[in-house]
Design brief:
Blueprint: H1 4-13, H2 16-28, H3 39-46, H4 50-62, E1 66-72, E2 78-84, H5 86-95, E3 103-106
Antiparallel strand pairs: 1-2, 2-3
Helix pairs in contact: 1-2, 2-4, 3-4
Length: 108
């Protein structure tokens, strides 16, 4: 969860709606069969359109708070690595290594 200070910083850097989407991704960490790029489904959960969801995700990505990496395992299972937070995203971009708490979810 975000502290009040982190929430304020995130809202200043992005928008209140982006904060809501960020906390949604936090809540979904570790869930199986969740596609973090399914804007229609996420939008439905948040009471938004798919377009608004995609726009807010772009704000999080552009500001360095979110990165979603899609991988396919050897057994053809699709997984998504959801990196949340400026430090986790920065670390991945600089080293190519996933931070220890990177959320991994199986896709459908």
């Amino acid at each position: 969860m975000l502290t009040p200070e982190q929430t304020k910083e995130l809202a200043i850097d992005t928008s209140d709606s982006a904060v809501r989407l960020y906390t949604y991704y936090i809540d979904k960490r570790g869930w199986k069969h969740f596609n973090p790029l399914d804007y229609s489904r996420i939008g439905e959960d948040l009471g938004w359109t798919a377009r608004k969801t995609e726009t807010q995700k772009a704000k999080l990505v552009d500001s360095g708070y979110l990165s979603i990496i899609k991988d396919t395992l050897k057994d053809k299972t699709t997984i998504y690595r959801v990196l949340l937070g400026k430090e986790a995203v920065r670390q991945y971009k600089e080293t190519g290594e996933y931070p220890p708490l990177a959320g991994v979810v199986e896709g459908d």
